[in-house]
Automatic annotation (TrEMBL), chain A:
Coiled-coil stretches noted in the UniProt entry, renumbered to this chain: none
Keywords: Mitochondrion, Ribonucleoprotein, Ribosomal protein, Transit peptide
Pfam families in the record: Ribosomal_S7 (PF00177)
Main location, first listed in the record: mitochondrion
Annotated Gene Ontology cellular component terms: mitochondrial inner membrane; mitochondrial small ribosomal subunit
Name listed for the protein in its UniProt record: Small ribosomal subunit protein uS7m
Annotated GO biological process: translation
Start and end residues of each Small ribosomal subunit protein uS7 domain: 53-207
Family, as annotated: Belongs to the universal ribosomal protein uS7 family.
From TrEMBL, chain B:
Segments of this protein annotated with the region Disordered: 327-349
This protein's record includes keyword Ribonucleoprotein: yes
PROSITE patterns xrefs: RIBOSOMAL_S9
Protein name (record): Small ribosomal subunit protein uS9m
Alphabetical UniProt keywords: Mitochondrion, Ribonucleoprotein, Ribosomal protein, Transit peptide
GO CC annotations, alphabetized: mitochondrial inner membrane; mitochondrial small ribosomal subunit
Native source organism of the sequence: Leptocoma aspasia
Gene: Mrps9
Molecular function GO terms recorded: RNA binding; structural constituent of ribosome
């Protein structure tokens, strides 16, 4: 059983809410056994309240809200959200410019949907393997270690944000720089992808210490 | 002859070491007789029939004869059956020669370990039965028990059953054994034994009553709902045959909630049910901040929409988290720390 390290105001028997409308419109026959058990369990147990960042509308995306939260400084969600929407707008504008200038045969390959670009860029930035410090016999070694999905997503988002905050010129706005980085990451170029490759190479170089890991 | 030198302090009876007061069976019997006699006397005093004098009548009589202004109900004079007053205790577990009755007495928790032994015995029985069926090439029964409708006894209920303390670790071991027993395909043999430790959970959590629709002077159906979040309290009135206009405290939502996120939250219940342009809403809200007010109105509108919608959709709304009150509030500041979690700056000297 998992004991919560930091306590939450909810009783541990409360389950997470399911916001998407489509999951409630599936007829009974299509569900697998596990889903049926889940449904029965949900009918009996109480359910937590949906957080204010989540909504069933088409425009709410959990990844985008996570990214907005990470960009937020001292609780200023309004500013973070406006920056995010300006970024997506900037991506769309750049892609549309490219689309109108391109010749006929290349028009289909250019991706205009900013959400797809965002997701693909994040996926391209995610490292596969990470390094962790393990102390053995007085010396600390950097040992290659597999990463969980959550950790990969977090690292990708963190790298993007730090990259945009530190390496931009004084006059460029954050949305502009972010949209630039996202487009580069979408095409597998740019400093964030380079950082990911550097990490992979370090992990490959420290391959000899992989047996130090005990989990 | 040996002179044993002791101080007066040691010769005094060690009251703390002997544990809680132990009552003999004869004492409890006497208390029950006295209680019954007292009940008849009380009935005579109140002028009622001694044969049909229930516990409620006793409580009323005592409250009438001995009025008390004390706030704590437990501190007021009461007359209850001795089994409720004296906690159920283990009878003394050893005979006159000092030899304990139970073979596991010296483990310290005899009833817990004997329970574990019994459960394991049942498990071995089930496994033997399975092996027999396999040897005879008969098919194993695979009827799954309905796990969602029942729950195991809690630790406190188990303590009451065994009359001794059960630690967290012991309790989790016991539950693991029970789960293992239930997971066996032929666990139906020991159904009776398992039912002693499982309790029914009310199958549907729809214990809330859905109010019917009310109609105002023009004949338009409407319903009200109340919601709260942190310190904000909101009431919402949802009208039918509307155009989708939402008014908060007399102001349109575009002016009251300039932030997109709050407006999204207001429209969330309507969008979930697919009824965006069909309802009008008038709400009043006070207290809290921007997001808290939005959350409170969301809850109030979801509760109001319950009357317009079928039961299945109400269940879907509940599973989407629209109908639960958010219990998260601001955590208090603790002494010795700067905030609820932040500690003071650590200085080495």
């Amino acid at each position: 059983r998992i004991m919560p390290v930091r306590w939450s105001r909810y009783n541990p028997s409360y389950l997470e809410p399911e916001v998407k409308k489509e999951s409630y419109q599936k007829p009974l026959e299509e569900l697998t056994e596990e889903e049926r058990e889940q449904m029965e369990l949900k009918a009996v147990r109480p359910i937590k309240a949906a957080p204010l960042t989540l909504s069933s509308s088409v425009f709410s995306d959990p990844m985008i809200s996570k990214f907005t939260n990470m960009m937020m400084k001292s609780g200023n969600k309004v500013l973070a959200r406006s920056l995010m929407s300006q970024t997506l707008e900037a991506i769309k504008r750049k892609q549309l410019e490219k689309y109108h200038k391109a010749p006929e045969n290349e028009k289909e390959t250019i991706e205009c949907n900013p959400y797809i670009i965002f997701h693909q860029a994040l996926k391209n930035c995610q490292p596969i393997i990470g390094l962790s410090n393990i102390t053995k016999g007085g010396k600390t070694y950097q040992v290659p270690v597999p990463l969980t999905d959550n950790r990969k997503r977090f690292l990708a988002m963190k790298w993007l944000i730090t990259e945009c905050r530190e390496n931009k010129r004084r006059r460029t706005m954050m949305p502009e720089k972010l949209s630039q980085e996202l487009l580069l990451a979408f095409n597998n170029e740019g400093p964030v992808i380079k950082k990911k490759h550097v990490l992979h190479k370090m992990a490959e170089a420290n391959r000899a210490y992989a047996h130090f890991r005990w989990w | 002859l040996r002179l044993i030198c002791t101080t007066t302090a040691v010769q005094r009876k060690n009251i703390e070491a002997s544990g809680p007061e132990k009552y003999t069976e004869a004492f409890i019997k006497k208390q029950i007789e006295e209680f019954n006699l007292g009940k008849r006397h009380l009935a005579n005093m109140m002028g009622e029939d001694p044969e049909t004098f229930t516990q409620e009548d006793i409580d009323r009589a005592i409250a009438y004869l001995f009025p008390s202004g004390l706030f704590d109900k437990q501190a007021r004079p009461m007359m209850k059956h001795p089994t409720e007053v004296f906690p159920e205790q283990r009878k003394i577990q050893w005979g006159e020669d000092g030899r304990p009755f139970h073979f596991l007495f010296y483990t310290g928790k005899p009833s817990y370990y004997s329970l574990m032994h019994e459960t394991y015995e049942k498990l071995l029985n089930v496994q033997k039965h399975q092996d027999q069926l396999l040897a005879d090439d008969l098919p194993l029964q695979k009827e799954k028990r309905n796990l969602a409708g029942s729950r195991w006894l809690t630790r406190i209920e188990l303590e009451e059953m065994l009359l001794e303390k059960v630690s967290d670790h012991d309790y989790s071991r016991f539950i693991q054994l029970l789960e293992k027993l239930v997971a066996q395909p032929c666990a139906d043999i020991e159904e009776k034994y398992i039912q002693k430790f499982s309790k029914e959970v009310p199958v549907q959590l729809q214990q809330v009553v859905i109010e019917p629709l009310q109609h105002d002077e023009r004949g338009v159906a409407f319903s009200t709902g109340e919601g709260k979040r942190k310190t904000a309290r909101a009431t919402a009135v949802v009208y039918d045959n509307g155009t989708g206009k939402i008014t908060v405290n007399g102001i349109d939502i575009l002016h009251y909630f300039p932030v997109l996120q709050d407006r999204e939250q207001l429209l969330f219940p309507f969008q979930f049910l697919g009824r965006i342009g069909k309802h009008d809403m008038v709400c009043t809200v006070s207290g809290g901040g921007r997001s808290a007010q939005a959350g409170a109105i969301r809850l109030a509108s979801a509760k109001a929409l319950r009357s317009f919608v079928t039961e299945k959709e109400v269940e879907f709304m509940r599973q989407a988290g629209l109908l639960t009150v958010d219990p998260r509030v601001k955590e208090r500041k603790k002494p010795g720390q700067e905030g609820p979690r932040r500690k003071f700056t650590w200085k080495k000297r």
